[in-house]
């Protein structure tokens, strides 16, 4: 790491502590952590993290730098945030930013911004303008589907989540929206990874959503939906990729700027469904 | 119209300034504000009011926050009244194209009912200074890059070029904004470059602190940190005051949230 002057005033003490919540729903316990974004340098309270320290002992920043090979991270990484759904027998599925980012392509970029050609042509004489340093998927698109742990396994299934049932008005016993990461693509659009959970008397429902908009180029939404009806020990999981070139999208900017609205207007490109089952001990 | 007159007055003042405006210490350097008006007032409480304190604002006054117009009007009024006590630099958001995507254009349309307000402000943007230089030794600029970005357009800051640039131009330091920093301030490249970020709890969710950098001389400087003004002490735009049922959208027909948002 470059030696840079340390802040004389520790920032951690000014920031509010993370919000930690638990909610019990039948045999499932939901755990939520919501906090501020990760710092831009080592956050160890005493001294500095070192290269020989175990991963679990590193501060968030250093842990991310150790475990990820991406040359840079999104502007906002909510490193402490998580959603965990755990069965009383121990099996769980968890969503967090680190593992979502581990699914990002760290070798290739596949998109260019709208004005790339014009920009390069205007700099045709400049040798530095022709070569990209360290390509990677700068849109931070992820195909993460959650992390399974303990006695829970994914099985193939024909069962589908009943979206009509979810449209019915029901009491909401619990609701949270947890940010995982976000970047403004240097004002060329937006990439956002968020997970939301709601619990109703009839079941619990999760949407893990990665939204990408590259202005005047593309809109893409990768969703993983989880649904567990009341009193069962399984979760249906459906992952979908929907995308369209902006030139093919005939919707208002209010719609394509909103992840929760635009997904319905995007053609389905890929889908994967399974059933997460608690193993009988 | 008051805003039109204000913009015309500031345009005349800006015509007198150079593209790189010389400034003397003592002066306080500030980063992005992005329409966070209540937090701008907190910034002035932290750093001192104009004209008691001299300021350089490094651009990005508008977009993303809910009060871009109020923020910009506040800064332009200060410039009109005390032109030598406040320097306003142009950020990448002070442009017609970006403000049409990221909120300022829409805010002008909503608050004034027409686009004239936006047009007058854009004329001011065109004349904003690109950089300021403090006592010939500290360069302040909104802040983009040097080395090809993988996005296909744009450069990235690099250590080598920063060192070369500061040496060639006899600079002690480059101050820039543009990049969100959780701690509010970040030094890089052996202290040759500093990022100052002045929008606390950015986008009302990042939870970061903000900072301003106060120079007594080009050798003596210290960062002043400040937090976002608490929820109960800040206003909320009308369209967010309606109660939003805690149902997240995941269906095609029942766009509850968009229905609530369309209520003025």
TrEMBL record, chain B:
User: EC?
Assistant: 3.1.3.16
- Taxonomic superkingdom: Eukaryota
Looking at the keywords, is Ligase present?
A: no
Which residue ranges does the record assign to the Serine/threonine specific protein phosphatases domain?
A: 89-94
**The keyword Manganese is assigned to this record:** yes
Reactions catalysed according to its record: O-phospho-L-threonyl-[protein] + H2O = L-threonyl-[protein] + phosphate
Q: What is the enzyme's class at the highest EC level?
A: hydrolase
For this UniProt entry, which segments traverse the membrane? none
Q: Which UniProt keywords apply?
A: Hydrolase, Manganese, Metal-binding
Q: Which PROSITE patterns match?
A: SER_THR_PHOSPHATASE
Molecular function GO labels: metal ion binding; protein serine/threonine phosphatase activity
Requisite cofactors: Mn(2+)
Family indicated by similarity:
Belongs to the PPP phosphatase family.
The name under which this protein is listed is Serine/threonine-protein phosphatase
Query: What is the organism of origin for this protein?
Result: Homarus americanus (American lobster)
The root-end lineage is: Eukaryota, Metazoa, Ecdysozoa, Arthropoda, Crustacea
